Amino acid sequence: MKDNSEITEVREAHRFNEQSLCTYMQENVQDFSGPLTVRQFEGGQSNPTFLLHTPDQEYVMRKKPPGILLPSAHAVEREYRIMSALQETDVPVAKTYSLCEDPAIIGTPFYIMEKVDGRILREPELPGMDATQRAAIYDAMNDTLAKMHNVNVDAVGLSDFGKQGNYFERQIGRWTKQYRASETDKVPTMEKLIEWLPENMPKNLETTICHGDFRLENMIIHPTRPEVVAVLDWELCTLGHPLADLAYNCMTYHFMHPVSGGLVTTNFEESGIPSEKAYIDAYCKRTGRNDIDNWPFYVAFSFFRLAAIVQGVYKRGLDGNASSESAKTYGFFARMLADLGAKNILTSG
Length: 349
What we know:
Blueprint: E1 7-8, H1 18-28, E2 37-41, E3 49-53, E4 58-63, H2 76-85, E5 96-100, E6 110-114, H3 131-149, H4 167-182, H5 188-199, E7 208-210, E8 219-221, E9 228-231, E10 238-240, H6 242-249, H7 268-271, H8 276-287, H9 295-320, H10 325-345
Antiparallel strand pairs: 1-2, 2-3, 3-4, 4-6, 5-6, 7-10, 8-9
């Protein structure tokens, strides 16, 4: 699902019986015909991702990594289910072909989907495009998010895909617990968020599909047109509050990512990229909202959640190698995210 430039030979730790996979596909994937060549995408560290090439067609396979895994982690079965459920909706997803839950085939459960061709745009400022192109890309992303949140979860068989209601209460509790388990130093701004968020949760308990990692980089844009042709990386998807997705999508307006950058210093009028307010207004129009109360809560929650995730990465890095330079970088990043989250609520009490 990524650019072909990111494809390599299958890494040693992720090798499997390719003939066994070919036999499985002959029996379970409609119109499949070998021979089969397998290569691996550079990304997909959580769930390794592979390009499956035949003379007639290319496929993508996502599998669980080898080794002992946490019970709820690396849930390729959930990825397959959500994408399959969305096949007949207007949400752009890759066509799914087969889910194999039998670890005897290649060592772990896996699923196979179509390879969608297009562009992966990693920098929010969209360098190299003109204002009209940038505006169209952002509008397409906004439209895709609204379409996903407008899906009737009962109608597509996803009413049991997650718990309904009280999403923020559960998430704040979960990530506070995770953060405490990986805490290395007291971070005053993280303490502020842990105190403030439960006291300011929205009363609106609506439930929709919640992607969990909805951002520009996690979608494929048509090779030449400003259209989203597939949303990627559904690993964190559940039933949740739609404004958690919207706020996460808008985080790029509030901070500069150390690798891909952000929109903090962007001149919106010149660039063609909508301001945060314009982007939110477009989403509200598409989802039938008049406005959003307490927007700072949703943004602060997004920073809190991401800070907790990054702190976990930092702690694991320290446990593996106390002198790791990358671990030190993650520690700084976690603190920065907490600082930004707390700064966002200073005017909200």
